[in-house]
Amino acid sequence: MSEIYDILVVGGGPGGLSAGIYGSRARLKTAVIEKGRAGGQAATTTEMENYPGSFGEVSGPGLMDDFAAHAEHFGTKILKGLVTDVDLKGDIKKVTCKSGEVYQAYSVILSPGAEPRTLNIKGEGKLRGKGVSYCATCDADFFEELDVVVVGNGDAAIEEAMFLTRFANEVTIIVIHDEGILDCNKASAEKAFENPKLKWVWNSVLEEIVGDELVEEVVIKNIKTGELTNKEVNGVFFFVGTVPKTEFLKGKVELDERGYIVTNELMETNVEGVYAVGDAIVKYLRQVVTAAADGAIASVAAEKYLAEKEYFREKVLEAKTPVLLAFWAPQVEKSLTSISVLESVVEEMAGKVSLSKVDTYRNKKTSDAYNVTEIPTVLLFNKGEVIDRIEGDFTADDVKKLIAKA
User: Fold this and answer.
1) What is the pLDDT of residues 273-297, one digit of tens each?
2) Which residue among 6, 138, 184, 279 is the active-site one?
3) Mapping DSSP to helix (H, G, I), strand (E, B) and coil, where does residue 170 land?
């Protein structure tokens, strides 16, 4: 446990591998922990047509192998392990694997991924990727002029079914409810009922998916009569939700009611130095391209966080002389004046005190950590401790009186 990484990524899907690329390329000591083959869900997609530049000539596993090789090329370590616990408090985070191995890092990027909710219908697992799909955006064009069925009737299911009608010859939605009753919002239901390419099977569930190498037909069961009906189709799309793999993160970072990790635009979680990316976060679109973008953003944010922490440690907490830490913002005119006052006092003191500046718009975490609510604010540090502060307008005499308390 002696080795401490700058960035430790939990999960080797496209988001995690992208984070690895950006972290290592920034010359940060970076590692990705992945329990199996790198790539996540993307590594199970036979053909990848919607990743920019792929033109349908690359497989999901092939693209993910390239992601992993790219990360390793810049120095990312890919470690094998199933993460079962994390301790994200403090400056050094700890990640524990099922094997008992414990890894340490100054920052952590969570990329545990999510998986489609499965119904364990006979034939579902066998024909996954061979006509059974969980993503219309990914696979719709493979079923052009073919017949497909959709399982599910919530918002996502109805929206994806309507998207499928742009490609498929016929889209049949299997609904467990009585005729006319859907779980989706009313507006989507009205649009769906008006779509001539959508067909409906009410009071029914999917009993079985049949096929050797590809989907050939399905068996539909009427839940009221028990009658079984065979229907020839070329594809089956499941839209019954996804499940984020965040069980081990409960109580560690903020999760929404469904278990997805809550982040901001910098991919920051509610825990300092901890970021999250990919399918396990609250987001609008879950695709390889968006996961890769998440990873890039998180690593760049982590890089700046680490640089800020290092600067603060060296210039403020470990300084040999007292330090004036000035919180300012270029947009606030009076804070510009305050910097000039501070610089003149520090020059006059001739090495007895130093000055460090924090742009509150760029370094919000430092501002929050010291409860800075007004600009300008000046904190006096001595031997790593806050002695006192000045908030709002001040004069050179005010600053000298503050320094005298050190």
Assistant:
1) 999 999 999 998 888 999 999 999 9
2) 138
3) strand
CA distance 88 to 105: 9
Q: Largest Cα–Cα distance in the chain?
A: 93
Catalytic residue among 65, 87, 91, 135: 135
Please give the C-alpha separations between residue 209 and each of 118, 205, 230, 302, 349, in angstroms, as whole numbers: 13, 12, 10, 46, 81
- What's the pTM value of the predicted model, to 2 decimals? 0.78
Whole-number Å distance between alpha carbons of 306 and 26: 12
Q: What does the pLDDT read at residue 56?
A: 67
Catalytic residue among 139, 184, 279, 294: 139
Beta-carbon count within 10 A of 295 CB: 31
Backbone dihedral region of 374: left (phi > 0), alpha (psi from -120 to 50 degrees) or beta?
beta
What pLDDT digit, counting tens, does each position of 176-223 carry?
999 999 999 899 899 999 999 999 999 999 999 999 999 999 999 999
What was the pLDDT predicted at 285? Answer: 87
Look up residue 27 and give its amino acid. R
| Spatial separation of the C-alpha atoms in residues 163 and 184, rounded to whole Å | 15
**CA angle (47 as vertex; 154, 149 as ends), nearest 5:** 35
The DSSP line for 297-341 is HHHHHHHHHHHHHHHHIIIIIT-SS-EEEEEE-TT-HHHHHHHHH
138 a catalytic residue:
yes
pLDDT, tens digit, 9 for 90 and up, residues 74-104: 999 999 999 999 999 999 999 999 999 999 9
Question: Are the C-beta atoms of residues 248 and 86 closer than 8 Å to each other?
Answer: yes
- String of DSSP letters for 192-216: HHH-TTEEEE-SEEEEEEE-SSS--
